[in-house]
Amino acid sequence: MASSMLSLGSTSLLPREINKDKLKLGTSNSKPFLKAKSFSRVTMTVAVKPSRFEGITMAPPDPILGVSEAFKADNNEMKLNLGVGAYRTEELQPYVLNVVKKAENLMLERGDNKEYLPIEGLAAFNKATAELLFGAGHPVIKEQRVATIQGLSGTGSLRLAAALIERYFPGAKVVISSPTWGNHKNIFNDAKVPWSEYRYYDPKTIGLDFEGMIADIKEAPEGSFILLHGCAHNPTGIDPTPEQWVKIADVIQEKNHIPFFDVAYQGFASGSLDEDAASVRLFAERGMEFFVAQSYSKNLGLYAERIGAINVVCSSADAATRVKSQLKRIARPMYSNPPVHGARIVANVVGDATMFSEWKAEMEMMAGRIKTVRQELYDSLVSKDKSGKDWSFILKQIGMFSFTGLNKAQQSDNMTDKWHVYMTKDGRISLAGLSLAKCEYLADAIIDSYHNVS
Amino acid sequence: MKTTQFSSSDRRIGALLRHLTAGSDSDHLSSVYASPTSGVTGGSVFAHLVQAPEDPILGVTVAYNKDPSPVKLNLGVGAYRTEEGKPLVLNVVRKAEQQLINDRTRIKEYLPIVGLVEFNKLSAKLILGADSPAIRENRITTVECLSGTGSLRVGGEFLAKHYHQKTIYITQPTWGNHPKIFTLAGLTVKTYRYYDPATRGLNFQGLLEDLGTAPAGSIVLLHACAHNPTGVDPTIQQWEQIRQLMRSKGLMPFFDSAYQGFASGSLDTDAKPIRMFVADGGECLVAQSYAKNMGLYGERVGALSIVCKSADVAGRVESQLKLVIRPMYSSPPIHGASIVAVILRDKNLFNEWTLELKAMADRIISMRKQLFEALRTRGTPGDWSHIIKQIGMFTFTGLNPAQVSFMTKEYHIYMTSDGRISMAGLSSKTVPHLADAIHAVVTKAV
C-alpha cells in the first residue's frame, strides 16, 4: 500500500494536509487508495522538501526501440519481432560475424593497451573507413580532401555533423525524406537545426514519388542540406535508380545545396560494398562538397560497439583540415574521445586481406539471406492472396526493411494484437528478423491486416 | 584565365586561381559565392571555418609526441604510467576480457538506451555503497554514459531541459573541459572560489561566500575527490559545512567522480563526500568515470546517477534521460561496461581490483614524496609541501605559464600551461630531471 502511494503524483507533501479519514495505512479494510476522491501523500523519506524534478513528466517510449520491449513481454509462441533493424539468422538468433570474433581474439592476444584515442578517433580506422566509402585510390582521398572523424555509430556521426551545421551554417535547413528514420528528426531537433521534408514515399505505388522529391528539393532555399540515404532507405527500402540519382545530383548542384548522406548499410544492401557506395561516389565524381555519416552496426554486426564515422568531402585539403579541427571541438565537450574497441575491430578486419575477404563473404551471406526471405515472402503473398493485389514492391525494395503499406494504426495494431507480429506503426517490417519458416505465417497476417482492417 | 569552363573541377580550379591572384577580375558568378553554402563552383562552403586550436590538455601530448628529445617527459594528460613509464592495463581487466571472449553466448546487440543494466546497478552500488538507503528505496536512476565527459554532458543537457535553474557553478580553477561541456549542454556557467594561490590550498571562506550568494536552486559542480587540476580537497569537516550550506539554499549538487579509489587508495574513503550528501535524503547528480580507476580510458566507460526524492520521480527522470541520449548516440558502447560488470560482480576479481588500485594510488603517493624530497635536497626556494598535501593524480605546482614554457623549452617537460603536472607520468628515474627543471625555473629570474 505504501509503495503504491509513493508511485502516484502528488500536489503537496506537507504533513498538515493529511486527511486522516481518507488515509488508512496498513489496515485491511482501508478503501483502495485509487478510489479515494481526494488524498494527500505522506512522504516516506526524512526530508520534507519536494523533489526538484517533481514536474518532470514520463516520456513516451522510443517508437522503434519500444517495439522490442513489447515483444519481450509477449508470451505467445507465434510471436515475431520485425521491429528494430538488427540482423537475425534463419534460426532468428543474433549473429556475431566470424571475422569479428577473430579480430577480437587477435586484439586480446596482442595485448593492445586502452589509452585514450585522439579526439578524432583511431587513425587506422579513419583511413580504412574513408577508403571503404570512396575506394582507396579515389581523388578525394589522394588529395586529402576528406575530413574523417570516428563517431558513435550512425547516430553519433549524424549528431556531430548536425552540430557543425548549427554552428557554421546558422539558419540553414536540413531537408529530410518523408518518411525517414525516426531518430533523424530528434537528432536535428536536439542540435537545434531546423528541418523540413521532401516527398519520398508514394503510398499509391508503394514506391518512390520521384517527381515530388525533385520538386521539393528544388523548392528548398538555396544552400540547404539534403539528407539522402546512400542505399537501403530506412524505413521504406525504396532506393532511387542510378538514373534517378543522376537527376538528384543535378538538382542539388543546380540549387547549390549540400548533400548529406546517411550510409548505414554499405555492403549490407546488395551484398557489394562498391555497389552500395555508388550514389556517394557519383556525388564525389561531381566535385561536390558533402557530408557522409557511416555506421558499422549492420554490415559488421557491431551494433553495441557504436562504431561509425562522419566524413566531410571538401574542395581542398586545407578546408578538410579546418573542418576536421572544428568537428573535434564539437566532440570534445560531448564525450572527449570515442571508444576504441569497435574501431580496432574494423581496422583489423579491413587491414588484413584474409579477414577482409571473409568479411565480404559474410556480408554477402547476410544480404543474400534477406533477398531470399523477400522472395519467399513475395511468393507466399502471391499464392495466398486471391485479390490480385500487386505485391511486387516487396521484391523491388532493398535492404533490411520493407514498407508493407500497412500504415494505418489499426492495421499495424492488428498485426500485433491478433497475429503477434511486432513492427513499427509506419508499416515497416525488418526482413532481417524474418525466417523462411515464418514467411507463410507473416503473409497470412499481412493479407488479413490489409484486406480486413480499415 | 579561363572564361569558358568545361567541368566542375575546371571551374573550381579557375575560381581558386582567381582567389589566389591579387587584383583578380570579379566574375559575374562571384555574387553567387556570397551565400555561405553556395560554394559549389570555386570556393568552399567551408571557407569561413577557421582552424581550431588544439585542445589545451590533449594538445600537450600532441606537442610531446613531436619532440625528438630523449629526456622528454609527458606530465600532461592524466593517464597512469608504470614506473617504467608505460601505460597499464590492469590484470583484472585482462582477466575480464578473457572471460568475455570465452563466453560463446555473448552477442553484440544494441544495449538499451540506458546502457548495460547490470553495470548501472553495480556502478550505483560502488559509488553510493551497497547499503545506501537511496538504492534500497529505488530512488536512483543510473544510466551508462561515455566516461566522465559523457555523464557530465548528459546530466547537463537534462538539467538544461528540465531543471528550473539553468546556472551551474564550477570551481575556480577546474578541469578545462567543464565549462565547454556545460555551455554546450545549454547551461550558464559561473565560478566559485576554490584555489588559494597564496597557500596553494583551499580558499574555504571564498567558497562558502560564493556558494552562499548563489541564487537558490543553482547547480553546483563538486569534485568528489582529487580535485582536478589542483589536487586540493576539502576536509570531511569542510564537506559537512558545504553540505549544510548547500541544502539550506536548495543548491543542486552535481558530483564529478573521476578518481574513486585512485585518490586515497580506498573506494569508500573517496566516495565519502557523495555519501554524506545522499545520506541526508536530498537529491543530487553523480558522474562516474572508470577511465582512471580501472584504466579503461579509451573504452569510455562511465555512469550518470541521479538520486531523486522518490522512485516515481526517478522513473520519470530516467525516461527523460533517454530522450537526451537517443539523439546523441542512441545507446552506449558495450565493451567497457561489460568489463566493469564482470569485475564488480565477482568477489575475487573485485578484491584483486582493489589491490591493483591501491598499488597505483601508492605509487603516485610515493612519487609525491620523492619529488618533495628531491626539491628539499636541492634547496629549492619556496614551500613545496603542497606536493605532498595535494591528492590524486595531479599537482598544481604553482608555476606560471612563462615558467611552464621555460620548462618545456629547456627541459622538454610537458604540462598544461596552468602549471598542472600529472604525478602518474613520473617515475623514480625521472623525478630528478623534473626537480632540476623546477629548481632551475624558480631560481632563475624569469
Overview of the structural elements:
The complex is a heterodimer of chains A (454) and B (446). Chain A is an alpha/beta fold. In chain A, 43% of the residues lie in helices and 12% in strands. Chain A has a seven-stranded mixed sheet, sandwiched between helices. In chain A, strands 1-12 form a two-stranded parallel sheet. In chain A, α9 links the parallel β7 and β8 (258-263). In chain A, α3 packs across α13, α8 runs parallel beside α9 and α16 (409-417) packs across α17 (439-452). Chain A starts with a helix and ends with a helix. Chain B has 446 residues and is α/β, with parallel strands linked by helices. Chain B has helices spanning 8-20, 58-66, 91-102, 117-128, 133-136, 147-162, 177-185, 204-213, 236-248, 267-279, 311-329, 335-345, 347-378, 386-389, 401-411, 431-443, and strands at 73-74, 140-145, 167-172, 188-193, 195-196, 201-202, 219-223, 252-257, 284-289, 302-307, 394-396, 413-414, 420-422. The longest helix of chain B is centred in the last third of the chain and has 32 residues, at 347-378. The chains are: A alpha/beta (454), B alpha/beta (446). The interface between A and B is large, with 96 and 97 residues.
